[in-house]
Fold this sequence. Notes:
Elements: E1 2-6, H1 13-26, E2 31-35, H2 41-51, H3 59-83, E3 87-91, H4 94-104, H5 109-120, E4 127-132, H6 135-144, H7 159-175, E5 180-184, H8 189-202
Parallel strand pairs: 1-3, 1-4, 2-3, 4-5
Helix pairs in contact: 1-8, 2-3, 3-5, 4-5, 4-7
Amino acid sequence: MFVSFEGIDGSGKSTQLVLLREVLEQRGHTVVTIREPGATLLSESIREILLSTKQTITPTAELLLFSAARTQLVEKVIQPTLERGSFILCDRYVDSTTAYQGYGRMLDLESVRLCNRMATKGVMPDVTFFIDVGFEQAQQRMQFDSSVGDPDRMERSGRDFFERVRNGYLAIAIDEPHRFVVIDGLRERSEIHDDIVSSLQQRSAFSI
């Protein structure tokens, strides 16, 4: 089963991915966790370019770099993992591109969707959890998280950008209610975790 986690920076999605992995492993499942962009040598190299504050990147170049990293990840990691029947938990996937580059950078949405289709080759998550928090709350969390360093290039995009990104995620949720699950990210992490596990258990096609 393929599960992805989405949210603006500071939403807590990475924490929820780890908590779900622990539950699945305790129940005897083989779990592979990955992040986007990343998980392959090429994708990690592209990640360094995308997050570096040493250069500017045009919105279209940004879109194509994310897509290149993704297609490498799909072919080298995601498809083989799913063929083995393992769980795969992904910290960001294609919805990030729609929300960040489509809505956030205001690129043509049809062009973004075309890039997404090419990059994923139709490989989509069975379920996507969007941990929904506002910009202010996300910023406060990042300020109090000692493990967070200086803001990267994406994190420096500003309030208006991240508000467009959040609205983009909510638009995706309306378009794809069968896959996209919106989770209130302002509650305690244990409550959020319980909601995620419950949601998976309620999907009759999935056994965890």
